[in-house]
Design goal:
Layout (H helix, E strand, L loop, with lengths): L15 H19 L12 H12 L5 H8 L3 H13 L3 E5 L7 E5 L1 H23 L3 H26 L1
Antiparallel strand pairs: 1-2
Helix pairs in contact: 2-4, 3-4
């Protein structure tokens, strides 16, 4: 029997708050699956370090300011983050091509290989779980996640306006 709180009075099904609570458990499972893949060969990257490497990989020669904005941190924190990644041989700072006062950030070959390895491990781990689902379940999950992604981007755009 359904509780009245589990039904959205405007539309069909539970309201967003109820769904959010239910999805939190699934997200925790995904994090549990995702996290070990970020530690290949004894490398221990923090979540913020991994986010920083991914941010640098996605954007051509970002500056420290670009990185701070991408990972949602302050310039001093982003600078310390780069210090650690540079010391680990995963990132390098080079003169910015258009601004002599700025530095660009680049992945080193080691950093690029590490990101590729983590991505491959995560894909394999996720594929193993998806293989245990039926094709319609996988399609529904994909559709739902794409809709979530689109709604998140639309919400972020409205918030910035």
């Amino acid at each position: 029997m359904r509780d009245e709180a589990d039904v959205d009075p405007v539309g069909a099904g539970p309201p967003p708050e109820v769904i959010a609570g239910r999805l939190a458990d699934a997200v925790e499972e995904l994090v549990d699956l995702w996290t070990p893949a970020a530690r290949p060969g004894g490398t221990r990257l923090s979540a913020q370090q991994l986010r920083a490497l991914n941010a640098v990989a996605r954007r051509p020669a970002p500056t420290l300011t670009d990185l701070a904005e991408s990972v949602g941190t302050t310039l001093p924190t982003a600078s310390r983050l780069c210090d650690r990644l540079e010391a680990a041989g995963l990132l390098q700072r080079i003169p910015h091509p258009q601004d002599r006062r700025a530095l660009s950030l680049l992945l080193t070959p080691t950093g690029g290989r590490l990101l590729a390895e983590i991505g491959a491990r995560r894909t394999l781990d996720l594929a193993a779980v998806l293989a245990a689902m039926t094709p319609p379940q996988r399609s529904s999950l994909e559709d739902g996640l794409r809709a979530f992604q689109a709604a998140r981007h639309a919400t972020a755009r409205r918030t910035k306006e």
